[in-house]
Design a protein that fits this description.
This is Dabb family protein. By secondary structure, the chain is α+β, with helices and mostly antiparallel strands. It is built from five helices and four strands.
Length: 139
């Protein structure tokens, strides 16, 4: 019971500390966080590949798509994965890719960019179907 009283006292003492002193300490210890936008533009791309494309061909396309973030300014991030939904509503599309942009202008510069056009030449012989959806995130 003595320990419980001591813990309660310490918690009360901590809660009653001068907030101005805490503010000074926090400002010394705060880390500056880069301002991120409150929403971002997602460029979601879904592919299916031709039956004649090998696993190596598909991996070559994935690697070329991933590499675009090194060649095109404005691509903030790149993600990809294979469909794993048990719902069966993917309409044959097997691979999902998401590129993130901070502005419409960044996305609009990406679309005609020579590196994106070159990627289209790599993809073309292996592409069966494609679906593209762009959307702004909502908090």
């Amino acid at each position: 019971m003595k320990n419980l009283g001591l813990i309660a006292f310490l918690l009360l003492a901590f809660a009653c500390q001068n907030p101005e002193n805490n503010a000074d300490q926090m400002s010394e210890n705060q880390v500056t966080v880069q301002n991120e936008p409150d929403s971002v533009l997602r460029h979601a791309v879904y592919f299916s590949f031709k039956d004649s494309s090998s696993a190596e061909d598909v991996q070559m396309v994935i690697d070329a798509f991933r590499n675009l973030q090194n060649d095109i300014p404005g691509i903030q991030s790149f993600e990809w994965g294979e469909n794993s939904s048990p719902e069966g509503l993917n309409r044959g599309l097997t691979h999902a890719f998401t590129l993130t942009f901070h502005s419409n202008e960044d996305r609009d510069a990406y679309l005609p960019h020579p590196a994106h056009q070159k990627f289209g030449e790599i993809l073309g012989p292996h592409l069966k179907e494609v679906l593209v959806v762009d959307y702004w995130t909502r908090p």
